[in-house]
Amino acid sequence: MCNVQELVKKESKLLPLKAFNFLIYGTVVIFTSFFQLYLQDAGMNKLEIGSLMALGPFVSLIANPFWTFWSDRMQNARRILLFMMTGTLLLIQFVFHAGTYNMIYLAMILFFFFQSPLFAQSNTLILGYISDKPQHFSTFRNWGSIGWAVIAISAGILIDQVGISRLSFLITGLLLLAIGTVLLLPPLRAASETPPIRLRGFGKIVINRYVIAFIVLGMLVSVPNSMNNTFMSLYITELGGSKTMVGLAVFLSSFLEVAVLLLFHRYLKRSLSTLIGCLTLVSVLFCVRWLLMAGAAHPLEVAIIQIMHCLTFGGYFFVGTQVVSKLVPPVHRASAQSLFTLTWSGISGMIGSLAGGWLFQNFGGQAMYNIGFMLAMFGAIGFGIMWYWLRFQGHHPKPDSPEEELEELFEEEYR
Length: 415
What we know:
single chain
């Protein structure tokens, strides 16, 4: 009985961690889904909006390693996260009150420097708190997915009532609540154990033809996804949709995410040829998704099509992570996973926002999605060829040097 009471007491101390994930993911979804509508209401065109949103993935290339370095050095992820959230809170005020384009671009660069690594640091915070406890990471991370879906649809309804000009108040309020939940957490003076990233690992990766093929094909698939993430809300409003419809579309794109990931985790075979075959099918589904988006004539159609996001994006990212682990030896996996995330979210995000803004501005949303279909189709064909090759030729990686084999064995023993 005493043990049960102690367990309940320990779990109750981490309730603010669940609330934090709910609120921080909800804050980010409001920004990523409705901020473009605010910019359009302020007089910016699609190309200007795309170039402004492209700053996020560009700045993240510098911000993520910077904050990771300081989190590891200070051994206090909670303090670093509080500092980042405070900076985000202050700079969002400058973003919403900037009087000129030059000022808003400068404010956005500084804002993204604090905001873009929030998800990565929140994951580090979770891992730090549960390192010596029986709870699973997904127990806390799933609250982020719930917050993303619930706050998106709630915000759409609220913004329709109060107006897009009040967006800053909504983001500020949620950020303050999120900061409050972190302050309620017990002190944390340890960083989570993460595998080190070696610069020489990138050298081994760039001469691996399978990894490079996977990265290039993945960018063909991910650029249209970045276009959609940036401009879906504007596409819905161009078709006559309301802010509530935008919130519904975001809700439908994420409410099945957890279930899809669980199904992949439980039933997907881990052989490399099977994983590449699965990526081929997911890429085909991306093609279907963008064709449907290009042909949509009503905003409700766009919202319903977003249900496919749970399977396409969730499936690709889950399977892609598994593929990376199969293509490189354990000693280089941290570097390979970093490269995967860098290209999928960072470089593809910049290209998608810029190219999508130019296409949307000059040729319209349908043309943007048709180009997205073509890019995804090339990616699907490439993955199909890669699957055929691996299915009949097999994967025969070159053996590592004796030093690297010893290092790998050492890491496996003490991991």
